[in-house]
Specification:
alpha/beta; 5-stranded parallel β-sheet
Length: 224
């Protein structure tokens, strides 16, 4: 994405007044002509399945049908080419860092000024990541993640095929069964399983299943 190429945006937030205000900001500050809104994650995913993906997605962390980083993981998986910016009233550095690690292109507090939104979008259009400086400071860099946040960060590194294979592992299927289910070679499944365990930082299928359970993994695949 290059500067000046931002023509469309999607706002995913269940507060109509905030959506209206942010839409006005995007149009006035960035000249974005086409702005659509969705009040739930499912509505956003339905729109993405039907229409051309927008140039940028602005996502609230807390929606009626999803809470926290789960919505971000699902959006990133479904629209890998579209940068997703978190716009949230939650500003705890640990949450900001987790969102960036999961795949957010930026993180803007809801109370930010119009100039801050313009700066964030400009940086993201240049391929940079925007986040409040305090969230990425050395003083907060080593603050521990919660178990669920850590699991979501690990899960976010899986490809869609690896995520599907992990789902089948969680269902108790062995490599031969997975190969039959997905119509791929058993050697391919073995290679994927090895990659899955490496990305999750585990040594066994049982440990991989525990990570998936911690992340509420089944819900992350609802849009697949």
């Amino acid at each position: 994405m290059t500067e000046g190429a931002l023509n469309s945006a999607m706002i995913v937030d269940d507060h109509p007044l905030f959506c209206d205000a942010l839409s006005m900001t995007l149009r006035a500050s960035m000249g974005i002509e086409h702005v659509v809104t969705a009040g739930t994650l499912e509505a956003a995913l339905d729109h993405l399945a039907r229409d051309t993906a927008p140039d940028v997605i602005l996502l609230d962390l807390n929606l009626p049908d999803v809470h926290g980083l789960e919505g971000l993981v699902r959006l990133v998986k479904s629209s890998a080419e579209t940068p997703v910016i978190i716009v949230s009233s939650e500003t705890e550095p640990r949450v900001v860092r987790s969102a960036i690690r999961v795949g957010a292109a930026g993180y803007v507090p809801k109370h930010s000024s119009r100039d801050t939104f313009r700066l964030a979008l400009t940086q993201i259009m240049r391929g940079e990541v925007y986040a409040p400086e305090v969230a990425l400071s050395h003083q907060t860099a080593n603050a521990p993640l919660t178990a669920r946040e850590d699991a979501l960060v690990r899960i976010s590194h899986l490809t869609r095929q690896q995520a599907r294979i992990l789902q089948l592992i969680c269902a108790g299927q062995m490599n031969k069964q997975i190969a039959y289910e997905l119509s791929i070679a058993e050697t391919t499944v073995k290679a994927h399983v090895t990659a899955i365990m490496r990305k999750l930082g585990v040594q066994s299928r049982t440990q991989a299943v525990l990570i998936a359970q911690e992340a509420n993994f089944s819900s992350l695949l609802q849009d697949n």
